[in-house]
Amino acid sequence: MSRRLVVVLFLDLVGWTRLAERVDPEPLQRLLDEYYEICSAAVEEHGGVVEKFIGDAVMAVFGADTSQEDDAPRALRTAMRIRAEVRDLRTPATDAAPVEVHCGIAAGEALVTRSARAGIRVVGDVVNLAARLQSLAVAGEIIVNETVAHLARSQYAMVPVPPVALKGKAEPVPVLLVTGEAADGGAGEDSLMVDRGAERHRLRRIYHQVARERRAQLVTVLGPPGIGKTRLVREAVDDLVAAGARPVAVFGSCQSYGTAGNYGALVEMLDALTRRAPSCAELLRADERIAAVLAALRDASLPRRAGAVPGPGVEEVSWATRELLTAAADDPLVVVWDNLAWAGQSLLRLIGELMDGLPDLPLLMVCVSRPEQAGRDASQEAGASQEADVIEVGALVPADSARLAFSLAGRGSGDEVELHGLDLAEQVDRVALYSAGNPLYIRLMMDWLRNGRTVDEVPPSITAMVGAMIDRLPAPGRRLLGAASVIGPSFTVEQLALLGEPAPEEAVAELAGRRLFRATEEEGGYRFVQQPVHEVAYGRLEKEQRVSWHRRLAEHGFSPGFHLEAATRLLGGLRPDDAELPELARQAAGALLGEGTVALRQRDLPTAIGLLGRALVLARGGPDRCRSVAAVRLSDALMLSGDTRGALEVAEEGPWCAASPPALIRVQRHLLAARLGKVTAADVEGLRAALDGLDGLGGLDGLDGLDGEGPDRSARCRFEQLLMLIHLDRGRFGAAEEAACAALDHARDVGDAYEEDRLLVALCEIRQWSPSPMAQKLAGCAELLERFAADRFLALPALAARARCLALTGDRSGARSALTEAESVVVQLRLTLGRVLVDQVAALAASLDGEHAEAERRFGRAADALEQAGYVPVALTMRVQAARECARRDRPDEAARRIADLLARREEMDVRGRILCLSAAVLSAAAQGRAEPMRAEVLRLLRNLDDPCLRGEVCFDLARAHRHLGEGAEARTMAGLAADSYAAVGAVKPLEAVRAWI
User: Fold this and answer.
1) Mapping DSSP to helix (H, G, I), strand (E, B) and coil, where does residue 66 land?
2) Fewer CB within 10 Å, N- or C-terminus of the chain?
3) Cα torsion for 221, 226, 231, 236, to the nearest 10°?
């Protein structure tokens, strides 16, 4: 129980009593059910609680449990949403009239109680007041008390109505009518810049510091929409140029709508950079790889078409961006990211990486965002080491608002505002009052006055003002504006033509002349000048029209996931029982799944997780197949991002019956358990039996028809991957290779390029240790290097495997060349674990060439990095390898001590590390004349080992141990086994060493 400031919302249906007299109760109840669902969803979404339903009346409370500073705006947003959505309902009477509501909202002190039986209860005069205000409102109106007006006036336009006498009140009560929402936007570039001298000076000072010290600096410019943030930055850059500075200034603007939030701004910035800096243009001509990355980014920034293939991975994008910025840095750089509130996590991460990766560049990075995004700037989101300098841009004081309004009223050019009998100062004062110090709002109001209107003729809400501006357009212009809003903030004439707009070029040019659109550098491309115009134009469209246009854009391959998802959401709101809705949702889920998979293949994990999560939500009511694949891909993405718990939850708690999940999900659960070391042979056999029992057939071929859509080869593919992991864990590399090949066949049968990529990389790595001949291993590497020529992240394992194979065959020059190329990839893409992979292979090559000190150093560095990353079993194997190299450097005592220490941890090692550690201990003891009893354990492990090179190395250890102990026959036998093992795969270099020893 507590006393607190709450906001109470009352609303009910207009004309309900008359309707109930004329219509049967059953259709009335169906209408009420739909009405209640709309109200409940809106209230809950905005953080309120439905306190009670009373017939057709609804009472909701905001701030009952936890007060929020914006409880009043939340209540208003809820009321306006309910008002809009119930208009799509129809009364069950013969005239089928639209449904209307009227609403009252009051804020005040109340006593809030909660009980298990009654739930939340609010007691106080504020409840009665809200109910009385609701009864005053006519159809479609929202009436509020003065407290609500005070709390929400900055976001909602309200007009006072005559004070009303209410029952039980001694004096008339002041009330206000809500007329609309305020809108976002930015100030006009051609208007006077006022009251920004301090902020401009601060930006100039930071720039001069960057230029002088040639050190990168991050600045965040924060302010509400329309306050003039972008204008401020542009003016500061112009000031620098006017003062004789030579900054290379480029801008990238993020979009709030669609799927190009990451790539659109980046492409805009990089294209500007290549135009401004000749050195960047020269770099693009000289480096085909950077040019290809930029070209792929341009394609990715366009609306996604169906069947899109992965572009460059995030590592390549980061590398190419760094290279271009570095090339352009002869003069100080100013990179401005505008509308960063709409940026995806991937772009924020890239900005942070650029700041960390280019600390010695004369680079001023300016991030323009909103105050509510202050905790989500690039430095915090990406973990950048440098904190951003923050410049906050506030509202204009009344005097500066009036000054701006006076400047917009007319400049002696014949464009003066017509006063309509009113004093100009009076008009300006009223504009300054209603604008709340927002330059965009002032500009829009003065534009209205210039068109022969007065302040009295429009509501004080910017959203309403934008709507009135749209209403003044000719009907074709309004329709074109609506069509463009469905496409997005940026659009092309081609896209408008797809939506059936006749002669769009002339019509678009006319709207551009009205400063609603501006041309972009893309041929036939345009962009909304003001974001509120885009948002209001979209919101004013009938939902049926939005559904139709979203579907048409998707049919032509423009961002099909986004547009189909929007169409599904709108159609579900219009007609939840529509027969087309399930198929539309299935198409949307499939499109999002495809786009999410492309992002996953590029390792753009934040984007992939978002798209795949949305696909899974839409696929809940569809076939098991789509749901299963979406869940598995989402689980993979979460696992790669380090969210193991999230990956498990998707597989364990997905949208299926826990008692009988689809086969693919069952396999995925076991696969995740295997990655965590928590699956047993009995678990696998139990899964195999369960899968076989689905249709009574033996073996994995019994998986046909699992999901009702023919052979579920995806489940078989994942099951073979499960077997592959288990075989690897036990050191059975040949069996692991067979399982990987089987999985690859299944992936190719269904055309699953995502699984094929993963399995080809895995197969390349497994074959390094399997019994396959060197020629086959090298052929597999060549296949991968050709396939992943444009994605060096995926090509790196093939380069490392190629270097290993060439080193083992004695091709020293070829091995060094492959290692040099791999080192270049690791450095350019900054791959920490990639460095570990290269170090392992470089250590092997050095050891084979007798460079044991270098081999020991490389193995040790790999072990350090692996331990830091948490890969303890593999790190211990690297420690064993380093100790063995120490022994080969004729430092037997030190090597023996290190091996003894590692023996105590052998249970933590993988099979490879364990057997190498044991055989090294056996050899060390024999060199001292002692027969080590652990030799029996080595022989036991050796029996189950099918890595020929590892068998050869261990057998050679045992051969030398036998010779130290004077056991000549046994020494020759083990040396022969070592030679046979190396010869079986064509490992010429170690084979020569064994034969020389024999």
Assistant:
1) coil
2) N
3) -40
Give the mean model confidence (pLDDT) for residues 535-564: 86
Query: pLDDT at position 188, please?
Result: 43
The confidence score (pLDDT) of residue 185 equals: 39
- What does each C-alpha distance from 883 to 277, 841, 852, 859, 930 come to in angstroms? 52, 16, 10, 9, 20
Give the count of beta carbons closer than 10 Å to the beta carbon of residue 833.
14
Phi, psi of 864 (to 5 degrees): -60, -45
C-alpha to C-alpha distance for 64 and 163, rounded to whole angstroms: 28
832: which residues sit within 8 A by CB, 6+ positions away? 865, 869
Please say whether the beta carbons of 952 and 945 come within 8 A.
no
- Closest CA relative to residue 334, chosen from 240, 428, 255: 240
The crossing angle, in degrees rounded to 10, of helices 681-692 and 713-729 is 160
User: In 514-559, which residue ranges form alpha helices assigned H by DSSP?
Assistant: 531-540, 543-555
Q: Which two tokens stand for residue 204?
A: 């100039």
| Average pLDDT, integer, range 359-368 | 94
Backbone angles phi, psi at 255, to 5 degrees: -100, 145
Residue 205: CB atoms within 10 Å: 10
Residue 733 has pLDDT above 60, yes or no: yes
- 360/355 Cα distance (integer angstroms): 9
Q: In this structure, which amino acid lies at residue 786? A: E
Distance (Å, rounded) from C-alpha 623 to C-alpha 636?
20
Mean pLDDT value across residues 207-235: 89
Q: What is the DSSP letter of 90?
A: B
Is-contact 857 869, C-beta < 8 A?
A: no
Distance CA 193, CA 504 (A): 35
3-state SS, residue 360: coil
Average pLDDT over all residues of the chain: 83
Helix, strand, or coil (residue 183)? coil
pTM confidence score: 0.71
> To which H or E segment does residue 115 belong?
strand 101-115
Closest CA to 962 of 954, 952, 970: 970
C-alpha distances in Å from residue 784, one per residue of 393, 720, 760, 872:
52, 21, 7, 29
Gap between the Cα atoms of 41 and 902, Å rounded:
61
Closest to 299 (Cα-Cα) out of 552, 607, 559: 559
Poorest-confidence range of 75-89, 329-343, 469-483, 768-782? 469-483
**φ and ψ at residue 612, rounded to 5 degrees:** -70, -35
Give the H/E segment covering residue 941: helix 935-943
Residue pair 599/611 in contact (Cβ under 8 Å)? The answer is yes
Q: What is the pLDDT of residue 420?
A: 44
Question: Which one, of 322, 323, 265, 271, lies nearest residue 294 by Cα?
Answer: 271
DSSP codes of every residue in 835-870: HHHHHHHHHHHHHHTT-HHHHHHHHHHHHHHHHHHT
The token duo for 264 is 């659109």
pLDDT at residue 564 in the model:
95
Least confident stretch, 285-294, 297-306, 737-746: 297-306
Write the pLDDT tens digit of every residue in 78-89: 999 999 888 888
Measured CA to CA, the distance from residue 396 to residue 433 in angstroms comes to 11
**Per-residue DSSP letter, 29:** H
Structure tokens at 726: 């288990």
Determine contact, residues 836/862, Cβ cutoff 8 Å. Answer: yes
φ and ψ at residue 19, rounded to 5 degrees: -65, -40
Average pLDDT over residues 193-204: 84
User: What are the contacts of 191-194 at 24+ separation with CB within 8 A?
Assistant: 191/404, 191/407, 191/408, 191/439, 191/443, 192/403, 192/404, 192/407, 192/408, 193/228, 193/231, 193/232, 193/235, 194/396, 194/400, 194/403, 194/404, 194/407, 194/439
